[in-house]
Automatic annotation (TrEMBL):
NCBIfam families per UniProt: gas_vesic_GvpN
Subcellular localization, as worded in the UniProt entry: Cytoplasm; Gas vesicle
Pfam family, one: AAA_5
GO process annotations (BP): gas vesicle organization
InterPro entries linked: AAA+_ATPase (IPR003593), ATPase_dyneun-rel_AAA (IPR011704), CbbQ/NirQ/NorQ/GpvN (IPR050764), Gas-vesicle_GvpN (IPR013462), P-loop_NTPase (IPR027417)
UniProt name for this protein: Gas vesicle protein GvpN
Annotated organism of origin: Natrinema pallidum
Extent of Basic residues compositional bias: 8-17
Lineage, broadest ranks: Archaea, Methanobacteriati, Methanobacteriota, Stenosarchaea group, Halobacteria
PANTHER family assigned to the protein according to its UniProt record, in alphabetical order: MAGNESIUM-CHELATASE SUBUNIT CHLD (PTHR42759:SF1), MOXR FAMILY PROTEIN (PTHR42759)
Length: 340
């Protein structure tokens, strides 16, 4: 019977070549380590394939194609594009369609009060303690304690590094101070990661990185005014409501109603848009159509009766005035009734 102690001694004294299995194992471990580093760096930021972000449905009329052509042209000219327009006019759908046209991954970011520099760029996710065991030579177990600072990149860093198209929706809802890091991205092609320690504190902007930002017109409540120095670096494309034909096609693509019904809904939407001070976007037309498809309410001639149209449009638009007192809702009801 072989004495265990002596076997260890013998083995320790012999130079052992790593077996093929050991080599394969180490290679696999390295691959895994690389993959998990990438996941870690990307944090929760998904990199979408361009075809995944195509809005569904997406209607392309001359008006839509012309706007998207302008956006795509400016992106090709390496200019960040800022889509500005009223709520529900189609900015997000256009931004995603233009992003999908580029054959690059897409990173999505939603602006709001909570977005600060860290949320854009990344942060330390705490220290991670792990033990490294060296069992290369059987019988020898060398342990080393390593504490590694984990840094997790957020959407801007991921997009800049990967050469993605960043779609930054409702950009003007975020605190303008958070956007200081954007200046050097667009001006010098460098992203600084404040808070990051070590040599890779900055990232060189990938040549294929592009940004499409969307904002409601600045007069809308709750929107911060962004610094001029930054706005100056964007191309501004105004996205107004589409022409009636495009709106009809859009509403018809979303809701299964007859062409006559869709035409009546779009005509009513556009009349209310002109008559009321509140924003009556294409989204409102789609929502009204969704309701009308359920409530029906056709008269003897097969047309929507006015009373049903009034009720549905009042319900759709009430959230825009609710909270400002009951009299505003009464006012809305009578203005809708006058228009329809
Ligand atoms: N070309 C299009 N084809 C199909 N649907 C569209 C198109 N453009 C806009 N829409 C639809 O119209 C509605 C409003 O569009 P979107 O959300 O893009 O507007 P927005 O201007 O980004 O709105 P908000 O300012 O509220 O974010 C959505 O339901 C969207 O799907």
């Amino acid at each position: 019977m072989v004495d265990d102690t002596s076997r260890k001694r013998t083995v320790r004294g012999t130079k052992i070549r790593a077996s093929r299995e050991q080599k394969e194992g180490r290679k696999a471990k390295k691959t895994l380590a690389r993959a998990s580093n990438a996941d870690e760096r990307n944090g929760d930021t998904p990199l979408s394939d361009p075809e995944e972000v195509v809005p569904e449905p997406f209607v392309e009329t001359d008006a839509v194609r012309s706007l998207r052509g302008r956006i795509s042209g400016w992106l090709e000219a390496d200019q960040p594009v800022h889509l500005i327009g009223p709520t529900g006019s189609g900015k997000t759908a256009l931004a995603l369609s233009a992003a999908a046209e580029r054959d690059r991954p897409v990173v999505w970011l939603n602006g709001d009060e909570a977005v600060d520099t860290e949320a854009l760029v990344g942060s330390h996710a705490g220290g991670e303690r792990y033990e490294e065991h060296d069992r290369y030579v059987s019988g020898v177990d060398k342990k080393t304690q390593i504490v590694r600072e984990r840094w997790v990149d957020n959407p801007l860093s991921v997009a800049v590094r990967e050469g993605a198209t960043l779609v930054y929706n409702e950009f003007s809802r975020s605190d303008p101070a958070a956007h200081n890091v954007l200046l050097s991205v667009f001006e010098e092609g460098v992203l600084e990661r404040p808070g990051k320690r070590g040599e890779d504190r900055t990232i060189d902007v990938h040549p294929e990185f592009r940004a499409i930002l969307t904002s409601n017109d600045v007069e809308y409540a709750g929107v911060h005014e962004q610094q001029d120095a930054l706005l100056d670096r964007f191309i501004g494309v105004h996205v107004d409501y589409y022409d009636a034909e495009t709106e009809r096609e859009i509403v018809g693509a979303h809701v299964d109603l007859s062409a006559d019904d869709i035409a009546a809904i779009v005509e009513t939407t556009r009349a209310l848009r002109d008559a009321l001070e509140i924003v009556v976007g294409t989204r409102a037309a789609i929502t009204a159509a969704t309701g009308l498809a359920v409530f029906d309410g056709h008269d003897g001639d097969g047309e929507f009766d006015d009373e049903t149209l009034r009720r549905v449009f009042t319900d759709v638009l009430t959230p825009k005035v609710a909270g400002e007192g009951g009299s505003d809702i009464d006012d809305l009801r009578s203005r809708v009734a006058e228009t329809i």
